[in-house]
Amino acid sequence: MAQYIYILSDTNTHLIAESISDQIFVNGIVESENIKLTTDILIQIAKSCPVEYFYIIATDQEIIFPKFDFSFKPEEWDKEYVHIWNNDTRIRVFNKAEVLKNPTNFTDESLKNGNIKLKNIDKKIYEYPQFDIIFLSYDETDADNHFRQLRNRFPRAKRISGVKGIFEAHKAAAKLSDTSMFYVVDADAEISPTFTFDYQPTSYDRHSVHIWYSKNPVNGLEYGYGGVKLFPRKILLEYKGSSVDFTTSVSGSVKVIPEVSNITRFNTDPFSTWRSAFRECVKLSSKIITGQTDNETEERLRIWQTNGDGEFGDFAIMGANEGREFGKENINQPEQLKLINDFNWLEKRFNS
Q1: Quick one: pLDDT at residue 247?
Q2: Which fold would CATH assign to domain 130-265?
């Protein structure tokens, strides 16, 4: 017989609570500031529980339950213990009578102070989700090869190809995804052999767009340009904006992770190289990328404009210089700046 199951949630973790309740039958989602198990919360749950034992699941991270059926019931002589699995207190089993007898003995504060009698069951009962990996391609020279390499290492990778427009392609990716968050890999990305797509954001980062570093093969820069990204699916689907820099505007929060996820092989031909450098330096010089200091921006611009050691490096420098000027000329003119997302306009400018 399954025991009663309660989810402890707060205003930041509703998505996680919903995800868990979609997997298993729960008897209640209890609101608690900062997901903290207090005396009042314990009394509330214990009084509402009609059976002898109840589970409490904290929602600090998204988890999935592939097999566990929540039918575990402690032995009679163990009722004074709080039972946990795999030495993790994210899921706990309480005896209702023991909690009502002295609820302060079972709070998070008591746990923090080492005053709770815990009994560990050495078994893994949940897993962290694997977020979808969506590969976006349009006209990139080595797209097929890069996707093949990605799929060989990560068979769950999916592909969106030929969708015109950055906004439209990302919307299509969100619709294709079946997970609450999903990774986006650009078609010119050669994934690092050490990158594993297993990052697990905390509940407070579930609404953030995560951006990893990428290595630039032309000038050696390592920062967010061209890096792997992790998007919250629901927020992206609801996004109706049309900003110049799509990635940093989808959510009100961006988290940059200083780990190199890939090399951005944008320098495959003169136009692709020029286009990439032009677009990035427009963004840098017009100061539309949030979270970067002026010193960071100026240093990156300087390197884009002067370092061109990789193949087609001269076209990268040319694009960087023209992009910087275009960005400066059109600062605070978003309609002009949005032209950098029109690849037909970019090609005409390059050819002229």
Answers
A1: 85
A2: Spore Coat Polysaccharide Biosynthesis Protein SpsA; Chain A (3.90.550)
